[in-house]
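Structural biology now treats backbone shape like a language. To illustrate, our science desk offers a sequence and the tokens encoding its fold:
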Amino acid sequence: MQKCGACHTLAHANTKGIQGPNLDGAFTVARQDGFQKSGIEGVVHDQISHVLTGSIMPKDLVSGDNARDVAAYVALVAGVPGKDSGALATAGQPKTSNRTAVEQNGQLNIPADPSGALAFTYGKATATAGSVTLVMPNQSSISHDISVKGNGVNDNGPVVAKGGTSKVTADLQPGTYEFYCSVPGHEAGGMKGTLTVK
């Protein structure tokens, strides 16, 4: 969820990334054709370990035991109906929904979740009407931006890689807005929050 869901759809992990192959779609037919779990695991591990030249998939996104665990999980659930339960159902879920960022001197600081999960460290924000700058430091291994929309506003900050900072400034009237990451699949994957302007 933290490293792969930004780009891949996998129903069991509730990820909706669209930049990379849909993992459910990729392995449903293979399973129907008799491809075994061990074969899927090998294919996934090979793709992680030997990223193709020119691919948008970052090299060394996961390695060692983490790469083997990711491959085993994908092999277990890709293209298989149902949902995860127990510890798997909550693994990797960012805990941001109860935290609120508060604007100070016209600026809202809303970092990207550093773990790589498709989330900000805040699920809500409040600001005073007027010019507001949303600032998103990104310590995640996934590239993100910060954007804001609602009430006729639709502005995007630049997409930045690890160590970068995305900023967007908008003139906000009282009302409710959404701050989100506009990288394809990230908002749908949960990288969004509610901004209340008073």
The chain has a mean pLDDT of 89.
